[in-house]
Amino acid sequence: MSSRFNVPGWVRKHNFKDGDWKQASASELDRIKAGLSKFHANQPVVSVVIPVWNEEKNLLRTLSSFSAMELKYPTELIIVNNNSTDSTQALLDRLGVRSLLETKQGIAHARLAGLRASTGKYQLCGDGDSLYPPHWVETLVKPLMDNEKITCVYANYSFLPFGKAGRVQLGFYELLAEILFEYRRIRREFLNVRGANFGFRIEQGLAVKGFEMPVTRVFDNDESSANFVVFGEDGRMGRKLGEIGKLKLVRNSKARMWTSSRRLLKDGTLFNAFIKRIQNESGKLIEYAFGPKKLKHTTDDFVTKS
Residue limits of the Glycosyltransferase 2-like domain (predicted)? Predict the structure, then answer.
């Protein structure tokens, strides 16, 4: 329990004070590039796909964490550049990372492009502003390998300290969020599936067309924006995979990713973020526990009409 309230040593190695890759030394970039070469597998078993948009100040941290990973299976890493206008692509080129450009704007389009380009048996999904532990790949993919009935795996996340929000406060917030996650598992477990930390068999992901969204979120999907969309491609993929098999929460700390708390704190303070979450979720608690197993209104309706 005490480890929840501290930042692990492996995180501190990659959480540079200034994440802008242009400020990194040539030797540091060469070190990360060398570590990432392990992801150039000719016949991968696992494909890791990360969609990015204007992540020049965050992506180096993410790639640094990948460079330090210990891989048990041949693995490929695919970064999908969704029309970045900053130097994100220049960083990918500098580090020799396989990337592809998706010109259709929206995270679902980027994830779908990455899925279609994957050549492994299993796909793991991540984000370009998060840090991943050394044994993340094998820990998250193991349940899929061990049990054919499991069609989707996902794991929890922790927040990096930012501003006045320290690890103690953030740790308690995460505990409350995970209690909600456990409650959702009764009838709405797919809502726990987050794009930054989940995986599935590529063949099944393609078969259920989970990322084929007619209406998709854009990056920085702000509620005050005219482009705000409530339908998530990650939850939809989780729901579709849950209809043909079982979802599995991987509680192992080796699968827990760490991400920025800046978006969490967009309402000013951690207390405000907590109150807002309570307000958003309180009206849904009955549905989470007693709602129908089959949803009546989903993004499938939009797909049918399109």
Answer: 47-200
Q: What is the residue whose two structure tokens read 């020049």?
A: 56
Q: Is 27 in a helix, a strand, or coil? A: helix
CA distance 138 to 189: 23
Q: Which domains, from first to last, does the chain contain?
A: 8-305 (3.90.550.10)
The whole-model pTM stands at 0.91
How far, in Å, CA of 173 to CA of 274, rounded? Answer: 7
Give the CA count within 13 Å in the CB-facing half-sphere of 152: 30
- Tokens standing for 121? 């048996």
Taking the alpha carbons of 206, 209, 210, 211 in that order, is the dihedral positive or negative?
positive
> For residue range 16-68, what is the model confidence (pLDDT) as tens digits?
766 679 889 999 999 999 999 999 999 999 999 999 999 999 999 999 999 99
Q: Is the pLDDT of residue 202 over 60?
A: yes
Q: Letter for the amino acid at 225?
A: S
- Structure tokens given for 145: 């390998």
The answer for residues whose C-beta is within 8 angstroms of residue 285's C-beta and 6 or more apart is 183
pLDDT of residue 226: 56
* 130-61-39 Cα angle (round to 5): 90
Strand partners, 229: none
